[in-house]
Amino acid sequence: MKLNTTHAKTAVCCLLFILLLAMAQLTAAQEPIATLRAPQEQPVLAGATTDVELVLETADLDIAAVAFVLHVDPQRVQLDATDGDSDGVPDSVVVHAPANMARSVTWEAATGKLNVALFGLFPPLPTLQDGVLLTVTFKVAADAAVGAAHHAENGRLPLLLEQVSLGDTEGNDVPANAVDGSLLIREPAVKIALPVIKRS
Questions:
Q1: DSSP 151
Q2: What is the mean pLDDT of the chain?
Q3: SS3 for 8-70, per residue?
C-alpha cells in the first residue's frame, strides 16, 4: 500500500517542528540565568528594626545594570528615607556596588515600594559581582505580629521583588529570576515583674 505523499510530508514537518521545539527548550534551559534573592522567613521582633539583605547571583554574566522594586506592607513595615549625605540613597539603605556605578534609590512610604536602579555610565562599564547587592534597614510596626496573622500565614510578611530587570555591558537584557522572601514576625517576650519580699 502506498503512503499518501501529502500525509507523509505533513508527518515529517510535524516531526521536524517537534524536534526544533525540543532543541529550543533545551537551549533555553541551558542558558545561564541571574537571580535576585530576598531572605526567607527572616525573624524579627515586632517593634524592632531588621537588616534585609538582597543577594545577587550573576551566573557568571557581566551585569552592568539592575533595576527592581522591593515591595513590603506599608502598614507594618517602614523605612527611614532620610538622606543625610544627599547622595540619592536613603541612609537606611547600603548599596554594595562599584563606586563608579550610578545609583538611584527612592522610597514610597504610602505604597511600601523601594525603587532601585544601579547602572554604569561610562565605558568600560563596571559590573556587579555575586553576593549582597543591597542591605535595607526596615522598622517593623509594634503591632505587626497581630496584623500579620491576618495578612500572611503564621506571621509572615512578604518581601516581594517586582519589575526586576538586568542588563549587560553591551546593553542587552540579561535573563533574570526573582525569588521573593519574607519576614517572620514575633511578639517580644512579656516581662513579668514579681514583688520583692524583704525579710525583717
A1: H
A2: 85
A3: HHHHHHHHHHHHHHHHHHHHHHHCCCEEEECCCCEEEECCCEEEEEEEEECCCCCEEEEEEEE
Query: What digits encode the pLDDT tens for the residues 22-57?
Result: 454 544 456 889 999 999 999 999 999 999 999 999
CA distances from 162 to 69, 71, 105 (A): 5, 7, 15
Q: Are residues 53 and 1 in the same domain?
A: no
pTM for this entry: 0.77
* List of residues 6+ apart from 106 with CB closer than 8 A: 114, 115
Verify that 14 and 47 share a domain, yes or no.
no
Q: What gap in Å lies between CA 177 and CA 110, rounded to an integer?
A: 27
User: Do 24 and 104 belong to one domain?
Assistant: no
DSSP class of 188: P
Percentages (nearest 5) of helix, strand, coil residues in the chain = 20, 40, 40
**What domain range includes position 162?**
33-186
φ, ψ (nearest 5 deg) of residue 154: 55, 40
Structurally, the chain folds into a number of domains equal to 2
